[in-house]
Amino acid sequence: MKSIQWDGQRISRPGIYAGIPLEDYHRGDICDGPSLSSSGLRLLWSKSAKHFWDKSPLNPDRSDEDDDKKEYIIGRAAHHLICGELGFANLYVIRPDKAPDGRPWHGSNGSCVRWLADQKRLGKTVLTPDMVETVRGMAISLGDNSLMRAGILSGLVERSLFWRDRDTNVWLKARPDVISTASGDFADLKTTTSVLYRDTQWSLEDWGYVQQGALVLEGARALQLEATSFSLVWVEKKRPHCVRVQMLIDEDLARGTKMNRVAIDTFHACFTAKHWPGPGDDRADAEYVQLSDAARKRIDDRLQFQLREAA
Which residue, 219, 290, 294, 259, is CA-closest to 40? Predict the structure, then answer.
């Protein structure tokens, strides 16, 4: 398994690249042509081309909505530390308990406002003491898990896979948490609110993780890496920080591959036509909307009960 050390230039040949910061990986011009990552493919499938383009780094007029919500910050920090990525101190800083002027920390304190502005200017994400405690709790729970101790998240970190789609020639990219050097088993760390089975099932569908798993395995195979499985390592963000490891089945990964195919073709058609329609934009007339089968059953059951009671 040979990695290419990134030289800071636009990527023009497929390979496994080392040394690409996450910020650069997501750039619209990282390749010598348009590129798609798992997050883009999932947005194209789950919402619309218009939603994708509004967030796309390829769009010069994209939304600059700040996504630094607490849960996202915790998730990124946990990934960085738990997966053993380098340079944590270059990206994160822990907020002090006291303000720079010596008083207790308060958001309206002028010295606190200036300190936060300085960190943003330096490109650093601020972690509050409670965020640090949350990440610490997750790390301890993960360390107690037998599959973690066996090395499910051990391997090469900070590697980015780049390859071209055979049908459209669009660049595809994936950034696994780790690339195992001992097997073809890939795993991805997911912070979540609950590891109960019904909740991980919901997350699997709602967040499109079958697409992510399918893309990682496709990229690995395209670059002649062994690729046999994809697992999700869930850890709860709140105490007691329960951990659960679940492997995706081949049948669902095959669905993810087909979902990605539709998303790639949609992107290619829209990029070529320079037209990014929303969910109903291409209809010339009004469409019907109807209750789902599940909603109908709930209503019918209630009607049946209440009409019987009324009689």
Answer: 259
